[in-house]
Amino acid sequence: MSDNSSSGSLGWPSVWALAAGGMVGGGIYTALGVVVAVAGQWAWLSFVISGIIACSSAYCYIILANKFEESGGAFTYLREVNKDGVAGSLSWLLLLGYVLTMAVYAFAFGHYLSYSFNGGPLITRICAIGIMLALVSLNLAGVTKTKKVEIAIVTLNLLALIGLAVLGFLQWDTLKLVSGIEPRPLWSAPIGAASIFMAYEGFQLLTYEYDEIKKPKKILKPTIMAAVAFVIIIYAIVAVGAVMLAGSLAIITQKQVSLSVAARSALGLPGLIAMTVAAVFATAAAINSTLFSSAKLSKRVSDDKELPSFFKKTKNNVPYRAVILLGILSTVLAVIGKLSSLVEAASLIFLITFGVVNIIALKFIKKSRKWISWVGIILSGLVIIILLLRLSVVAPVQLGILLLLALFIILGRPVLVKKYSSNS
């Protein structure tokens, strides 16, 4: 692919911004209240632990992307190592993860917008449905992603978050980290990390656009690794700063809009307006990127006959059936789901996916750097066990549904694919 290695349109500023924006776009807005509820004053450490897994996984994604020189992410890497069946099952599971993620972002969009003008539950649901309908329509019309607009949104988003964190640090008061709640033990940090891992999944959407990256073998590793490291720092300082402004109890009780609560505490109405603008643009952009990439993945998987051919149909170069179906499922979950359950279910799926990518990379990574893969494998495994135990206690029904879906994917997928792959 050496002749095409420079043909992409995405240089390092775009790759960095899209990787950082893919993570921060919806992650911190939805995850902060969830992790503070679990880890209390150790929420910042939860983000660091999850970030270490994300770092090792990002490194492995980069190694594999540059090795195979092909878009497609984990699905492609498994196909390249002759694990077609596993690739098919993982792709279905990953698509479920994207549906859950878009539901979380739509949920956040609806709550942040509604909260800004004291709207009730009905207004919140209408806002969530409205943004999903708008973005599905834009994708169907072929208006998917404008890089300059996304970079502008990322810049606005990061400035808002950094500003919020700085305001919090200027009002330093460690008592705020445990105000109104029981102090959490240190071992609650890995439990919190398990609960909000979804906040780091966004960088791997770039692996579906490998062909659009300019000189990927040169810029991909330093750019994405820098983006992940930067996001870890942002998450950690916001996890401290926002709680310093509003207090733990307020962040937990209003976890759907935790950053708006913090901004309002700091600056009143102007702070609320600024954070609402940042939140709605960030979550909308995150939905759009995820919908575009997941629909693209659906077509790729269908082309390889691991999804029914229903998903490969395109109009104006858009896999419209995939866009519509993924959009409908995400909208339904955004309306009926609970924030913590959606975040934790999505986190479990991405932990499994990233763990698999770390395992695949062991075969191709330099011997002196295999420890990076092992860090990701061991930490992912431990955190998956922690999350399964947590869900079995706090959300046994949701966990049961997720496990049944996983069982269906493993056992039922081959039958469905065989039956429908030849249909037009």
Task: Describe the protein in words.
- It is a single chain.
- This protein has 424 residues and is mainly α.
- The protein has a single domain (2-420), classed as Up-down Bundle (Amino acid/polyamine transporter I).
- It is 75% helix and 0% strand.
- The chain contains 16 helices and no strands.
- The protein has helices at 12-24, 27-39, 43-68, 73-80, 84-116, 121-140, 147-170, 188-195, 216-246, 248-253, 258-267, 269-303, 320-336, 339-361, 370-394, 396-420.
- The model has no long low-confidence stretch (mean pLDDT 87).
- It holds the Pfam family AA_permease_2.
- This is APC family permease.
- Keywords: Cell membrane, Membrane, Transmembrane, Transmembrane helix.
- It is a multi-pass membrane protein.
- It is found in: Cell membrane.
